[in-house]
Amino acid sequence: MTRSPGPADFGLGSWPARRARISPGRPALVRDGRTLTHAGLADRVDRLAGALTRLGVRPGDRVAYLGVNDISVFETLFATARRGAVFVPLNYRLSGAEIRYMLEDSGASVLVHSPDADDLLAAAAPLPETLRHVVATNPASCPADGLDFEAELAAAGPAPETAVRLEDPCLLLYTSGTTGRPKAAVLTHGNLTWNTVNQLAHLDVLSTDKALCIAPLFHCVGLGQITLPTLFKGGSVEPVAKFDPGAILGRIGEAGITSFSAVPTMLEMMCRHESWDDTDLSSLTCVLYGGSPVAERVARAWLDRGVKLLQGYGMTEAAPGVTMATHDGTLDHPVAAGVPHFFTDVAALGPDLAPAPLGAEPAELLVRGPHVFGGYWDRPEESAASFVEDEWFRTGDVVRVEEDGWAHVVDRVKDLIISGGENVYPAEIEAVAARLDEVDSCAVVGVPDERWGEAGAAFVVLRPGARLDAAAFRAHLERHLARYKIPKHVQFTETLPRNATGKIRRVELRALATATFSNGPA
C-alpha cells in the first residue's frame, strides 16, 4: 500500500525507510565486521519502534541511550524518531551522579545501554522513578529486572504510523556543561533536516561515501557534520567506539574511508602518531572539524598531505552548522571558520541589542535559520534570554569578518578579559602561543587585579622534552601582540582540564588562577 508523502516524510524518523527504497542493498552501518544495509536498518528501526510502543513509549516521551558509538545508537535514534518520541544521547564520560541528573532532567521513560556503560549505570543508582524500563544491548549486561534489546526486537511487531511534523522535538542534546549544570537543547526534526540540507549544499556527499563516526554521538559534531548527511545520501557510516589515532589512521587506508568529522585534539593526535607519514590518506575527500579552534600547524599538517580539511563553526543550538570553510579558500584561510551555510542568517549584536551588520570589528554573533533550535528543555526563562527579537540566537561567540566574507571566531563573550579598560581575547593569545614549537597547548584566563581590574593568567603545556621559561614565552608574545595583551602570570603545567569533547574547562582554570595568583605576580 502506498501513500502520498507528507511533512512527516521529511523528518528524521523517515530517513532510513525512505533511503532503503532507493538503494536497499547498499551498506548503511558497518562495525566490527558486521554490515547492516539500508533495507536491514529500515526493518530493524521499524521493529524497534514497535518494541518501544509495546513498552509504553508515546509521541513526545524521552528515550535515552548510554554507551559508546555503535550501530545500536543509530537504531535507537531512528526508532525513537519513528515513534515520534525524543532521543536523549548521554555522555558516557560523565559520573554516575551526572547521568542520574540528566535522566531526571529529561524525564526519560526508557534507557538503552551498551555493556561498556554497566559500571556507570550502577554508579547512577538509584535511577529516577520516571525511568520505567532499562534495555541492555548485550544479554550479559541485562540485570534481573532489565530487558534484552534483541529479544524486544524479536517480539515486536511493526510500529504504528505516527505523524511527525518538522516542528516536533526529535533530540535533546546536553550542552558541555563548562559552566554550572548542563542544559538540553531541544532540536526538532526540522532543525536536523535543515542542517543536513545546509551540509549537502556546502559539501559533495555521495552515495558511495564511506564515513567514519569517531566523534561521540552525544555531541553535535559526531551527529550532524558528516554522519547524518552521509546516511541521508545513502552512503555508509562506521561508528568507532573508542578513539585511537593509530587505529583510525589504519582504518582509513584499509577501508578506503572518504570522510569523517572530528574535534581538533583528535586531528592533532593523528598527525603526531608514528604511522602518520606512512598512512595512505588518498581516499579522503573531506575531513571536517569543529568544537574548538585548531592550531595552524595542525591544519597545515593535514593540508600538506593533500587532505581537504574544512573547519565548521557551529553549536549544539544550531544543530550544529553556522559557517564552514570552502575547498577553494582553505589554503589561504587555514584556521578560519569560513562562510555562512546556505540557509543561515548571521548578524552582529548591536549596542542597542538589535541585529547589526558583521564587520572587521569583533562583535557577538547572532544567528537565525530553520536549523536553529527554539529553546532549552524545561527552561523557558533561559530560552527567552538566549534570543534577540524572538528569532536571533545569541551565540555568545565574538566574531570578526574579513573583507572577503570569511569569518574568524575571536573568542567567547564570557571569556573576554577587560584589563585597564582594554578588551583582551584569550583565544588570540593562545593562537600566538601555539606558534612556538615548544608549546603543546595553552589556555589564558582572567584573574582579579588591583591595578588593572583583570589580568591574564596563562597555563602552558610544553611538548615532551621541550624547555621554555616564562621570559622567553612572554618575549615571543610581545613580538606579535600589544603589551596590554601579554599575560601577567605564566604557569607551566603538565595538562589542561578538558571536558569529554576536548574543550578546556575554563571555570576550573579561573578558580585555580585566582587561588594561585590573587596575592601577587607569578
UniProtKB/TrEMBL annotation:
<dbReference type="InterPro" id="IPR000873">
    <property type="entry name" value="AMP-dep_synth/lig_dom"/>
</dbReference>
<feature type="domain" description="AMP-dependent synthetase/ligase">
    <location>
        <begin position="18"/>
        <end position="377"/>
    </location>
</feature>
<dbReference type="InterPro" id="IPR042099">
    <property type="entry name" value="ANL_N_sf"/>
</dbReference>
<dbReference type="Pfam" id="PF13193">
    <property type="entry name" value="AMP-binding_C"/>
</dbReference>
<dbReference type="InterPro" id="IPR045851">
    <property type="entry name" value="AMP-bd_C_sf"/>
</dbReference>
<protein>
    <submittedName>
        <fullName>Long-chain fatty acid--CoA ligase</fullName>
    </submittedName>
</protein>
<dbReference type="GO" id="GO:0016874">
    <property type="term" value="F:ligase activity"/>
</dbReference>
<dbReference type="InterPro" id="IPR050237">
    <property type="entry name" value="ATP-dep_AMP-bd_enzyme"/>
</dbReference>
<dbReference type="Pfam" id="PF00501">
    <property type="entry name" value="AMP-binding"/>
</dbReference>
<dbReference type="InterPro" id="IPR025110">
    <property type="entry name" value="AMP-bd_C"/>
</dbReference>
<dbReference type="InterPro" id="IPR020845">
    <property type="entry name" value="AMP-binding_CS"/>
</dbReference>
<feature type="domain" description="AMP-binding enzyme C-terminal">
    <location>
        <begin position="428"/>
        <end position="503"/>
    </location>
</feature>
<keyword id="KW-0436">Ligase</keyword>
